Amino acid sequence: MPSTDRALRALAALFSVAILLVPAMWNRFPLLQWDTGGYLARWYEGTLVISRAAPYGLMLTVTSALAFWPLLIVQAALTVWIFALILRTHGFGQNLGDRPLLLVGIVTTLSVFTTLPWLTSILLTDIFCGLGVLALYMLLMRSELLTRCERIALIALIAVAASTHNATMAVLMALVAAAALIHCIDRARLPRAAVLQGIAALALGAVMVLGGNYIVAKRVAWTPGGFALSFGHMLQDGIINKYLDAHCPQAHLKLCTVKDQLPRDADVWFWGSKVFDGLGRFAGLDKEMEVVALGALREYPGLQAEAALAATWHQLIDVRTGEGVLGWLFHTQGIIKRYTPDIAPAMNAARQQTTGISFAAINELHYPLALIAMALLPVFVLLAWRRKIPADLGELATVCILALAANAFVCGALSNPHDRYGARMVWLAAFATGLAVVRLYERYVAALPQPEARDILPA
After folding, report:
1. Which of 220-234, 253-267, 362-376 is the most confident on average?
2. What is the dihedral of CA 105, 67, 164, 306, to 10 degrees?
3. First vs last Cα of the chain: how many Å apart?
4. CB-side exposure of 107: number of CA atoms within 13 Å?
5. Rounded CA gap, 422 and 431, in Å?
6. What does the angle CA 339 – CA 33 – CA 208 come to, to the nearest 5 degrees?
7. Residue 258 burial (10 A CB sphere; 0-12, 13-18, 19+)
8. Sign of CA dihedral 149, 151, 152, 154
C-alpha cells in the first residue's frame, strides 16, 4: 500500500520535527544565546567578526521577517532526514513506512534525555556540527547505499555545516584526514571516490565561507578567529604573561604597556576588557596577538602540550545543556531591537526574556547520561569487533569517538573549554548508543526459544 506508506512516512517525519521544536514552541520564540546577535548583525553592519560566520548570519537575516521560525524548521527537518537515512542504510527498515515508530521513538528519546532539541530550537550554528559529522559519515562509509540525489544533498549539507563555524570546519577536516589515512591502509573499506566526495564537500564549504564573507563585507576573506582564540587560551593558562615578561619592553608590543593588567580569563579579555577595547579590539591587536601566540608556541612547547591536554580533557567532559541561554542578553536583544524591530515584541514576550529558563534540573538528567553514552562508545566498538552487533554500528561509534575527540581538541586546546562546545556534539554518542541498544535487543529477542506450532494451536 504505497499511499499508506507515504502517509506514515510524512506523519512520522512531521511529528519528529515538531518534537525537536518543543523547546522553542514552549518558549514562544526561538531560543537566543550570547552569540546570536553577532551572527545577525553581520549583514546589517557589513563587517566580519571573530567566530561569527557570515553564511549563518545570512540565514538569520533571510528568515528574520518570520521571527526566524523557518530556520528552526530547517534545522529540525535536516536532523530528522539524517536520522531517517541512517536508519535505512543500517537495516532498520527500507523506509520510514516500514518502521515509522522507530524514528519517532529515537527522536523522542533523544529529545527527553539529551540536549538535541535545545540545539534545533536555538539560533546558533551548533546543531550543524553534529549534522555535518553524521552527513560525512554517511558519505564516506555508506555511500553505496545512497541514491545520487542523496549523495548530492549530503555534500551540500556538509558544505553548509562547515561554513557555519571555523571549529566545525576543523572537526570535519580532521575526519576527512582520518578517512584519507584509512584509504591508504585499506582501500576496500574506504574507496577513493568516497574520500574525494568528502574533500569536495569541504572545498564547497570553503567557497561558501568566502562567498558569504564577500556578500557581507565586500572583500574576499576568511572568518576571523584562529590565532586570536589561541592567544585567549594561552592568556588564560598564564603562558602569554610568561612570554611578555620575558620579552618586554624590548619586543615593542602594545601589549607590553598593559601586560600587568591582562585578565586571566579569555572571555573577559575578548568581551569584557576595557584594556582590549582601548587597544582597538581585534582590528587593533590581531597581528600582535598572532605574533605573541606563535612566539609563545615556539618557546614553551612543554607548557603548551600540558595545557592542551588538560583543556582537551575538560572540553570532553564539559557537555552540560543550556550554557549562555540566559534571560538577559543585552547584545543579542539589542541587535534584534535595532535591526529587526518588528519581531522585538515577540522576543520580549518569550519565556526566556520574561521568567528565564533554568537548566539545573535538566542537567541533573542530561549530564550523567551524556558521560555514560560517551563511555559506552568504545564498548560498542568492541562488541562490533566481536560480531555481537553489526560492524556498521561499530563504524558509527568509531566515527563518534573521533568526532568527539577532534571537537574537544579544537574547542578546548585551540580555543577555550565551554559546555556549549561539548553539548553540540555529545548527543551523537547517545544516538549511536540508542541504535546499538535497539540492535542488541533485537538479537536478544531473536535468540529466545520460539514456541512450537503445537504449543500455540488450540487443542
Report:
1. 362-376
2. -80
3. 36
4. 29
5. 15
6. 70
7. middle
8. positive
